[in-house]
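Thread: quick sanity check before group meeting

JM: Hey all, I'm pulling together slides for Thursday and realized we never actually wrote out the predicted structure for the chain we discussed last week. Dropping the sequence here so it's in one place. If anyone has concerns about the input, flag it before I start.
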Amino acid sequence: MDSSSPSGKPGFFERLSSLLVREPEDREQLVQLLHAAHQRKLLDADALSITEGALAASEMIVREVMVPRPQMEVVDVGDTLDDVIDRVNTTAHSRFPVINGDRDHVVGILLAKDLLRVRRDAPFNLREWVRPAVFIPEFKRLDVLLREFRVSRNHMAIVIDEYAGIAGLITIEDVLEQIVGEIEDEYDFDEADENIQLDQNGLYRVKAHAAVADFNAALGTHFSDEKCNTVGGLVLHHLGRVPQFNETIVIDGTRFQVLRADSRRIYTLIVTRPPEADSPE
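JM (edit): ok, ran it. Output follows.
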């Protein structure tokens, strides 16, 4: 197979091979050669970044990138169909671990697309729609997990610790993002231009870095921005700590529900405007 481009110029692998005439003795030397290739215009920035990401992923373990157990977005096996649909609409995720009472007991995985086949006029039992869950140890390497994801065609795995307890979850997107960088979804609110959006259920999706002044204008509230300039800062100041996923905070009648957060910061909130708030202009 000819690796040259149609124009007759040397292709990517041909140019890289010419650079690696002397075989590198360790990974550090390989990285140095790749950077040298980039400086000599033999390797563009994207190719360099992906190659470095692939090398880094081979040394990382699942525990380093998984979604921790407290932040897992789950549904309960006893939930009603309306409860599950509301959960899907609120989070906009396509897969959910299904628990039985608590997060230490994961019984399977629900694919949101399966709900399209549920008849609304028939009794609903979530157990009938649960698919088997894949359980993996938290010390599995990311490159090994990616290969397993490709072979099994699974997109989510439940992570267990050394005592067989639930430690968190990881998706194929989490692994790929370590290699190619963050993957933007055209429907991902976190990547949207607007900081404040009204959804079809009458709830506001608000980015934590939205200005308090803009928030007041959109929702008709009257929060002061003297101490906190952003909505996330307002919540942190009121609570005195970083809230967990799905935690609800009520400030002056306005209900803030954490949609996305990690151990250090808030990213996205679901906000319910109080009935007595002035109508936004």
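AS: nice. The chain has eight helices and twelve strands. The two ends are 64 Å apart (CA to CA).
JM: adding both to the slides.
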